[in-house]
Amino acid sequence: MGSARTALFNWLFARHHGGEMLLRVEDTDAALKTQAYVDAIIEPLRWLGLDWDGEPCFQSDRRDRHAAAIEQLVAEGAAYFCDLTRAEIEQRCAAAGLPAGYHGWSRDRDVADGPGVVVRFRCPDDGATVVDDIVRGRVSFPNESLEDFVIRRGDGSPTFHLANAVDDHDMGITHVIRGEDLLNTTPRVQLIWQALDLGALPAYAHLPLLVNAKRQKLAKRRDDVSLDDYRARGYLPEAMVNYLALLGWGPPDEVEIRPLDEIVELFDLDAVKPAPAFFDPARLDHINATYIKALTPEQFAARAEPFLTGPDAPWPPERYDRGTVEVLAGEIQQRIVRLGEAAGWIDWVLCSDVTYDEKAWHKAMVKGRAASQVLEAVEARLAADDFTSAERLESIVMGVGDELTESLGVRVRSQAPVRVALTGTGAGLPLWEPMRLLGRDETLRRLRAARGRL
Known about the structure:
CATH architecture of the domain at 56-207: 3-Layer(aba) Sandwich
Strand order of the largest sheet: 3-4-7
Structural class: mainly alpha
Largest sheet: 3 strands, antiparallel
Distance between the termini: 51 Å
Shape: elongated
Number of strands: 11
CATH topology of the domain at 56-207: Rossmann fold
Strand content: 5-15%
C-alpha cells in the first residue's frame, strides 16, 4: 500500500507539472531478477491506472555503466576494496571495544580485488551531509555517523545507493519522491553523486509513513496492506486512487471525494504533510461505497461480473444472468461497500435451491402468525398472475396479510413468511422486483416447498 501511494504521488506530481514519470525496475540484486518481481511492480500500477512515460528501465541492463562509476570512485580514492566478512568485522569490533558496525577497517589495508571482495565508499570523517527535503525541510546527517557503506557487492553487482545515484543522473531525474523510511539512504546517494561530480542534485521529497490505528508503521505481517487483497475483495481502482491521494495530502477546499483530473490539478508537494498518515480502512470503505453508488446499472454489472462469475460464485455459471444484475443494480449498490459483497444480495435469485437460515425460519414460520395460511393464500393468488409487474406482486402478497388480519382479528404479517420461503433469510433487497425476475413457476415451487417443510 505504501508503494502504491508513493507511485501515485510521483504520478500526480509529474502530471500536475506537465513532466514525465519514469519507471525504473531496481533489480541489481540477482534475487530480484524474476518476472514475478517485475509483475509485482507493474500490475498494481496498471490496475490503478497509473501510466509512465517511455519504456521501463531495468538497472540490471546498466551494469557496465555502474561498474565504470565504481572504477572511477576507486581510482580517485573515494572508494576502496574490502575482503572482511561480517563475522570478521564483529570480531574486530569486540577486540577494539567498539560498538557493532564497520569502522573503516580496510581503508588502509590495500586489499586487492577478487572473488567475494566488496567495494566500500569512503565517507567523510567530519562535517555533515545536508538533505534539503521538500516535505521534511532541512535534515542534517553528521558524517561521523555514516559508516563506509558497500557500493559493490561481493558478486560484482552494484548496490542501491550507487545504482540510483548514477541512474538518477543519466535519466535526468529532477525529483525523487519516496517514503520517509528511505530518508536515511539519501545522504549516501548524495555523497556518491558529489564524488562522481554529477552536477546539481535532484530535489528530494520523503513522504510520511503510513500507520495503523495504533500509530504503528504499517507492516505486512500485522496489517492488511496488500493491494492485491483489496482488489480481490472488490475495491474500485478509482476509489483506491482517490483514497491513497489523501494519505498525507489534502485538497485546499477539503473536498475529499472528487474526479482524478481535479486531484491532478490541485496536487503539489508543498501541501504534503510530514506527520504520519493514518491508513483508515473505514474511510476507504466509505469512499469505495460512494464510487460504487455512482456507477450506472450497466457499469455496475460490468464491474461486478468478475465477482459473480468466478469460481467463488455461489451458483453454477449457467445460472448467471447479467440482465438480472442490471435490473437490481440500483438496490445492490446502495447496500454494499465492495463488489465482492454483491453475490450475497442476489444469490437466492440466481441459485436453484434455497438454503434456509434456521433463525429466520423459526421467527417467520414457526412463531409467525398464520404462516401456513399466508403461504397457501399467496400461492393461490400468484398462480393466476403473469409476473409482469412488481407493484402488483407486492399488492397481492400484502393484500393476503390484510385479508387474514381482518378474518382472524389479529395482525398477520404476510411478507415475512414469503420472504423466508423465497430467499431463505429474513432480510435482503426489496422483495418484489427480484420476485418478478424469479418468475411464477419458481416462486410457486418455493412457496410449496416451504409450506411442505412447515
